[in-house]
Amino acid sequence: MNGLDLYAKVEEYLDFSEEVRQLHKYFLIELLEKDINSCLDIGCGQGELLEIFALNGISGIGIDLSEKQIEFAKLRGVDARCIDLCNIDEKFPCATATFDVINYIPNNELTKFLTCAYNALEDNGYFIFDINSSFGFEEVAVGTLSIDNDDNFINIDANFEENILITDITLFTKKKNDTYKKEQSFIKQYFYSEEYLNNMLKEIGFTIEKVDQFNLHSDEEADKLIFTCIKK
Ligand SMILES: C[S@@+](CC[C@H](N)C(=O)[O-])C[C@H]1O[C@@H](n2cnc3c(N)ncnc32)[C@H](O)[C@@H]1O
To answer: Quick one: 3-132+192-231 is in which CATH superfamily?
Structure first.
């Protein structure tokens, strides 16, 4: 199983839901203030944000590269599809990418990915996304987490070196005969500075409206930056 699908399987056991709800609230408020009624959610995961959009009168389509995430999102009743961003041929007044999606994209694919986000927007459309700050990677994301439930045991071990966070995920799932099935994989996240992204976004044709600091997992320092860009 690839890392994205294994992450999809363990996500419900990670105790992030209240924090992620606060992050999603930021995006919702931005869309409501901008009077946006339709949005493409890139890397939609299990579809929570699409559900929040729908409850607030914003229609949305979600895309994700993980088949497993899309399976979970569909159970929520949202329109979620396992399609590559570059294969989207509709245009939207807004696109979002929340909770680390941009950090999943390797450096040699980032210009193409952001260009495809640009191409999926109508003129004057908004692209709003978050990234992890260096504090977020160096101080918050690293470490080990073990979760022991009746039916499974999860171990997550994250290390940040040379601007890459590697998160090893191990899942033991209890089977009917009391033996355990072991699944193991990893995900990589890449650090991008604000300046680096600003330059890349401008070269693609975006205007940057603002970059906000956001405290997701930490009260000390912002562990995230949220970019609001416009296709001009
Ligand atoms: C931490 S999850 C966040 C999910 C969701 N946006 C949220 O706010 O809960 C990151 C998601 O990005 C997806 N992802 C990673 N690379 C992607 C890519 N190139 N295109 C689309 N989705 C991608 C992963 O499968 C995963 O569902």
So the answer is: Vaccinia Virus protein VP39 (3.40.50.150)
